[in-house]
Amino acid sequence: MYLRPQELITATTKRFVLPETVLLVALCTWDMLYTLYCVRTGLAHEENPMLRSSIASSDTAFLIVKGSTFLIPILLLELIRTIRPRFVTFMMRFGFLAYALLYIGGSIAVSGIL
To answer: Using the 8-state DSSP alphabet, how is residue 42 labeled?
Structure first.
């Protein structure tokens, strides 16, 4: 089934959130929780100075700071989706792929596999 451009825009903007948004939030949340677990169990340490100070303060502070680094931009993109649906869909896909590749690459580098 082929949708005309206006139909595509209407179909895209009627969704509550994009599937790409759900995937990106899930990946970022996994990273946040796994980082917290690894730091608290001594398997890793936080390199980001802003996040390092928040995790030293408390788990809640870390979750608020780290969560805001991805939830605020994602929320803003979802809000402008009614105006620029194609752009937002592209950015969500790009953000997910870039984050996943950086996460995998960083994990490989830290583990010393290569």
So the answer is: T
What pLDDT was estimated at residue 98?
Answer: 94
Cβ burial 18-56 (10 Å sphere, 16+ → b, else e) = bebbebbbebbeebbeebbeebeeeeeebeeeebeebbe
Q: What is the CA radius of gyration of the chain?
A: 17
Query: pLDDT means per 10 residues in the chain (114 residues)?
Result: 56 74 94 94 90 94 96 94 91 93 87 69
Specify the DSSP class assigned to residue 48: -
Q: What secondary structure letter does DSSP report for 99?
A: H
DSSP string for residues in 65-77: HHHHHHHHHHHHH
In whole angstroms, how far apart are CA 42 and each of 28, 29, 46, 65?
21, 20, 11, 21
CA 72 to the chain's CA centroid: 10
The pTM of this model reads: 0.79
Q: Which helix (H) or strand (E) holds 104?
A: helix 85-111
